[in-house]
Specification:
It is a single chain. The chain has 145 residues and is mostly helical. It is built from 5 helices and no strands. α1 crosses α3, α2 packs across α5 and α3 crosses α4. The relative contact order is 0.14.
């Protein structure tokens, strides 16, 4: 698992906390995912659905679920376990598939909010580049380098 994938899985795990997430939480997740240029939205969605969801979905079904962030080492070790032991993943996949169908509306909505914030950041970065004249940076005097 690449460092970018690890970071993405940790950030996407925030969607599994057993509480109503305010908009600033989605913005924070997007801000952390934004620098991961090697991960497309399709790849991020795959990580959410195929890597993080099978490990964490039960948290949303128990009364006393996790309200704070998940232990990163624990999360990544379970994801790695599922990757190494594909038989285990294959055996449990029907259950995860049914759970995804049941919960996909919620996660698709959350993912869309994160992607919308990332798109806003992308547009803001593009405007900043345009304002600085094709990527040039302003110095203290306001001149373009």
């Amino acid at each position: 698992m690449t460092v970018s994938e690890q970071t993405a899985c940790i950030m996407l795990s925030e969607l599994f906390l057993d509480l109503e997430l305010p908009d600033f939480h989605f913005r924070w997740i997007a801000r952390e995912l934004f620098p991961l240029k090697d991960l497309s939205p399709v790849k991020l969605k795959r990580l959410l659905r195929d890597e993080v969801f099978p490990v964490l979905w039960l948290n949303l079904t128990v009364i006393a679920g996790e309200w704070q962030e998940f232990d990163h080492k624990w999360l990544l070790s379970w994801i790695e376990f599922r990757r190494r032991w594909r038989v285990w993943a294959w055996i449990t996949s029907p259950l995860h598939f049914l759970a995804w169908i049941d919960m996909s509306e919620y996660f698709n909505e959350c993912f869309e909010k994160v992607m919308n914030h990332m798109e806003e950041m992308k547009m803001a970065a593009a405007c900043e580049v345009d304002a600085n004249g094709a990527g040039g940076k302003s110095n203290e005097m306001g001149d373009i380098d």
